[in-house]
Each structure stands twice: as structure tokens, then as C-alpha cells.
Amino acid sequence: MRRMSRHLIDIRPLTTSPPFARMWTGSTLAGLGGQLTIVAVMLHVYELTQDTFAVAMVAVAGLVPMMFAGLYGGMLADAFDRRTVALVAATVTFASTALLAVLAWTGGETVWWLYALSIVNSSANSIVMTTRSAITPRLIPRELLPAAAALQGVTVGIMVMAGPALAGVLVATTGYAWTYTLDVVLMTSLFLGLWTLPALRPEGVIVRPGLASLRDGIGFLRRAPNIRLQYILDVIAMTLGQPLTLFPAIGAVLLGGGAVTTGVLTAAVAAGAFLSSLFSGPIGRVHRHGVGIERAIQGYGAAITLFGVILVVAQAGWFAPADPSAPNIVLITAACAALAFSGATDNVSAIYRSTMMQSAVPDAMRGRLQGIFTVVVTGGPRLGALYAGSLATFTALWFPPLLGGLLIIALVGVLVRLNPAFRAYDARRPTP
């Protein structure tokens, strides 16, 4: 029993720091509510327009404002009380969601209202996430940062697995107004978690938000080879190894099952991340975080390569069902296993990267570096969608993941070999 417990998630951040426990609980519930609204807005836009391009524009329209908000939120977090910054941004998120609910209840919603409030919501939430990440190292000891990052993986897993499915059920059974209202209710838990925090002014030299502050952050990143390289490695993985945009076509053309298969493949990625967090006990006992990031991202590349191979097999017609229109259960199961492994390895990489950034970056710079990281994590998957969609248009559905996975393995190996200090990084003596 004791041996088994060593492999389970370390929950000491929740037991040793009540403020962190309240913030984590509030963020998890609010994140689940946020997923309800994201999916409900997309369904709402489609109902009003019957246009899939209009639905896609919900995400595209909010991308640039969200990236700028993350950068500016990082500067705010390095200049003012982080508790106050997070509370103000959370209030804006709450107000935009509440207005969505009011419009739905009164029948006053329009496509442009949905676009505008989605942009406001995602931008304010970007500031909340950036500030909250800068707060975490002030609430728990450094040795518990990997465990805190693993708990964040649990949060993301719950959000991605349960949120979209619950949103679909709620919209179908109760309507948009009740769905938005439930998000408003869940958002109140975030206020509880943030309101009860102590004052958290940044330590060290404070630079007011503006170009000088941003230049300081970028200048620090230039002098921080370990942090800079982990950003680059993440961009490579997310650009070359994000086949999510291909899932609808894969479900319709290669594996069968249509929309159901698309949902199952998407859930498999989240399930892998969730399970890797549940069994993340050994991660906290690893000190060579540079090596951990390298191996985790290369494992991610291997999983995406395997997914591409499975699609090649599907294209060749092997293991085909008797009815061509029926889902290919054998290959769907294999694809889900590969994608679950990709979600698990991506989550392990995220744990190490988050821990490195939170422990090696000085407190006075932590908000701005988290803001730059927001640009990385929001921009990378969008570049990945462009890479996969464009390449698949001119080749085949299996080609982008097969090529991308192999490139990830090779590029990560070369870049880490060229940066021996990254491979030698020791969490007990963190250096940016």
C-alpha cells in the first residue's frame, strides 16, 4: 500500500497551504464553468448563423486580445498587489458572463454580443491565469511546486473532459440561459479563493506597466537560456504535434463514427493528462528537470508519430469494419491510446516547465515571464492548427502527425544537445 501511495499524486500543497487549497478549488470550479460558456457560445453562434466559419471566428477573434492581455497582466502582476490584480480581472470575467446570461434570459443576444463578450471574457481570464501562476510560489514551499503543477493538470483534465460534454447536455436540456447562469454560480468560488488570500505585492525592484517593463521582461528572457529553451521546445511540440484540427475529418473519413469519434479522440488527450497527474508522485522526486522536459516532449513526439502510423493503417483499409460507414473500433481504440499517451507526456512536460519557471525566475519578474508564457501556450496550438490543416490539404490526413512527431523527436534532441546547461539543470539549485 505504501509503495502504491508513492506513485499517486502528492496532495501536500492542499494540506500544507489552506490559501493555495482555496485558490485551487475555486480555480477548478470556475474553470469548469468557463468551459461551459466556451462551448455554449460556439453552439449559440452556430444556432444563430448556421455557419461553421462564424463559429471558428469565436476563437480567432479572441486570440490577439488574449495574448496582449496575458502580457499586460504579467506586467500588472509585477507592479501591484497580485491578489488585487487577480480579483479585478476575475470581476471583469464574472461581469461578462453575467451579461451573457442576462441577454440569453431576455432574448437580446446577437452574434456580435457573443463575439464581444467572448473576447472580454477570454482576455480577463488570461490576466487571472497569468497572475495566479505568479502567486503560487508565494503560497507553498519550492519543493512542492511540482505537486502544485500536477494538481493543475487535474484541473485541466476535469475541465476538458467534463466541460464540453456537460455543456452539450445542459444546452440541449435546459437552454443557453441556464448554462451561462451555472457558470456565473461556479465563478463565485473563484472569488472565495482569491478574496481570502493575503496581500501579495511583488518582491524586488518594481517597474510600472509599460514598454520599459516589457523590455525588462524580454531582456531577462535573453539572459535566461533554460527558460528560453523550454519556451522554444514547447512551441515546437505544439506547432508540429497538434492534430486536433484534423479530428473531424479523421472521424468522418478514416476512422468512421463522425462527431462521436471526434469527441472521443479529444477526450482521450484530456484523459491522458488527468491520469498522469493522478499518478504523478514520482515526478516530484526528480531533480533533473531539463532531462525530464526533453524526454517528456520526445515521448509526446513518439505518441503523435504513432497516431500518424495508425492513420496510415486506416488509410490502407486494414482492420476495416464490414460496413464502411461504421466506426472502426479497433483503430479508434488504438488512436485513443496514442492520444492519451500524448496527453500524459505533454502534462509531465508542463509540470517540469511550470516548476522550472516558478522556482528559477525571481519574484519581481515572475508575472512578466508568465505573461510571455501565455503568448507561447496560446499561440503554439494555433500555429499547430495552421500547420496540420494546410499540410493535410495538400497531402493526406496521416501525413502532418507522422512528419510532425518525427520532427519533434529530432529537433528536441538536437536543441538540448546544443544546450548542455539545460540538460544539467538541477531543481535543487534552480538557474534561469
Automatic annotation (TrEMBL):
GO terms for cellular component: plasma membrane. The keyword Transport applies. It is found in: Cell inner membrane. Keywords: Cell membrane, Membrane, Transmembrane, Transmembrane helix, Transport. InterPro entries: MFS_trans_sf, TM_effector. It is a multi-pass membrane protein. Pfam families: MFS_3 (PF05977). The chain crosses the membrane at residues 21-46, 52-73, 85-106, 112-135, 147-171, 177-200, 231-254, 260-279, 300-320, 326-348, 369-392, 398-418. PANTHER family: ENTEROBACTIN EXPORTER ENTS, INTEGRAL MEMBRANE EFFLUX PROTEIN-RELATED. This is MFS transporter. It comes from Microbacterium caowuchunii. The lineage of its organism: Bacteria, Bacillati, Actinomycetota, Actinomycetes, Micrococcales.
